[in-house]
Design goal:
Blueprint: H1 2-24, H2 31-43, H3 53-83
Length: 85
Amino acid sequence: MVAQRDRDNAVESRRILDRVAREAGSGDASVASRTARRARDHFSGADADREDRIEYWGTRIGRVLGLAICVGLLVWLVMFLLRGA
């Protein structure tokens, strides 16, 4: 009786794990490669309308400038904290 219950629990657990793995859609890509691809698509303006050149290039330029400003602020913060001011 206990062995049958353990076997049933193991089968149910395996079924749930298989379903979660399918629904996660992880595929062959690792988390790092998916994140890198999403960042590349974001900064290249992949979601902007390619027919409208101004929107496309404005999106790309704006996102790169935003990244540069963010990096500059982080560098400033680190330098500020290291100086002990």
